[in-house]
Design brief:
This is DegT/DnrJ/EryC1/StrS family aminotransferase. Belongs to the DegT/DnrJ/EryC1 family. The protein folds into 2 domains: about 240 residues, 3-Layer(aba) Sandwich (Aspartate Aminotransferase, domain 2); about 120 residues, Aspartate Aminotransferase, domain 1 (Alpha-Beta Complex), CATH 3.90.1150. The chain is about 40% helix and about 15% strand. It is built from 12 helices and 14 strands. The mean pLDDT is about 95.
């Protein structure tokens, strides 16, 4: 992934530096407002990363030690780690093969009386079935956190992914379409949740540092609870505001490139590329292919692509197979293990040319014979 950063972002960052206000301030407030409006949420709360956004989401939902939180193993490890940050127990659910996402059935298979929440991931930008999973979570009486790290610009049922979520967490890491270098966001519709999230990210203060310094009168702040330092800087937010203006164009371009991949890859036996689900559209933050009956193993394919100058990556990791979770014995996760073992991610970025794509596919076609 090569982020699209140009002179506008450089100028915006420089303007923030020249303003003298580089910590969390007015640009963060503007970015929160504009991003929330873009994804159909009432409130945005900027954070230092999506990982910290997930952590705060679980804190504001009062998830505690003794609680179980169902998560997909097929996700970046931060999804499961956030559960451990609050002392709760992550329970790994399997996913469906076409999208890499959890379903009502895979969640229900591992649900217990201790289940207090579910973290459902819009994996690689592919939206999960929001209508079905939200309805199920409501019926079970559990909280639903939407890990939308990769999903800015994706849609579900004609709405932005994350719209209508109780709480959603977003990433602005350079691997995402919209980047601030590092950074994240929590979006919510509940005003009380937004107020507490803002307090939690700033040491538990009852008034933000920006508001305190902007006041013409002395402000004696109070610290209402033990909290965190998870703030975004105004320099990052300045870049994010420019990036937000590029988002629609970036999604359109990536979908054009993905359509070209689908055309070129058609007819190669044993190779299944990711596609839009019936209920929405992906932003193609990642373009992965599954090598189910391919004559060559995934690692050998990666090695040959590298030898031919193509920087591809292994597919999405499975957290339960990592040493950090060696103490967890999950229920069987056959689809997760199949996807993480047999998939790879092809290059997809704004600088990718038609010749690049033809070369990449020619290498895959040669290996399929």
């Amino acid at each position: 992934m090569i982020p699209l950063l140009g002179e506008e972002e450089a100028q915006a960052a420089a303007d923030a530096v020249r303003s003298g206000w580089v910590a969390q301030g007015p640009r963060v407030k503007s970015f929160e407002h504009d991003f929330a409006a873009t994804v159909g949420a009432a409130h945005g709360v900027a954070t230092s990363s999506c990982t910290t956004a997930l952590h705060l989401a679980l804190v504001v939902l009062d998830i505690k030690p003794g609680d179980e939180v169902i998560v997909p193993s097929l996700s970046f490890i931060a999804t499961a780690n956030a559960v451990r940050y609050v002392g709760a127990t992550p329970v790994f659910a399997d996913v469906e093969p076409a999208t890499g996402n959890v379903t009502v059935e895979t969640l229900d298979a591992v649900r217990t009386p201790r289940t207090r929440a579910v973290i459902a991931v819009h994996q690689g930008g592919v939206p999960f079935d929001t209508a079905a999973v939200r309805k199920a979570a409501d019926g079970w009486g559990v909280h639903l956190v939407e890990d939308a790290a990769c999903a800015a610009g994706s849609t579900a049922y004609g709405q932005p992914a994350g719209a209508g979520a109780t709480v959603a967490a977003w990433s602005f890491h350079p691997r995402k379409l919209l980047t601030t270098g590092e950074g994240g966001m929590v979006t919510v519709d509940d005003a009380a949740h937004a107020t507490r999230l803002r307090r939690l990210r700033e040491h538990g203060m009852n008034v933000s540092a920006a508001d305190r310094h902007a006041s013409s009168q002395p402000v004696l702040e109070a610290y209402l609870e033990t909290a965190y330092n998870y703030r975004m800087t105004d320099i990052q937010a300045a870049i994010g505001l420019v990036q937000l203006g590029r988002l629609a164009g970036l999604v359109a371009q990536r979908r054009r490139l993905a359509a070209r991949y689908h055309e070129l890859l058609s007819g190669i036996d044993g190779l299944v590329p990711v596609r839009d689900p019936a209920h929405g559209q992906t932003n193609y933050q990642s373009f992965w292919v599954l090598l189910d009956d391919f004559p060559v193993g995934r690692d050998e394919v990666l090695a040959e692509l590298a030898a031919q100058g193509v920087s591809a990556r292994r597919g999405i990791m499975a957290a339960h197979l990592e040493p950090a979770y060696a103490d967890v014995t999950p229920a069987p996760l056959p689809v997760t293990e199949r996807l993480t073992r047999n998939s790879l991610i092809l290059p997809l970025h704004h600088a990718l040319t038609a010749d690049n794509q033809e070369h990449i596919v020619s290498v895959l076609r040669g290996l399929s014979r």
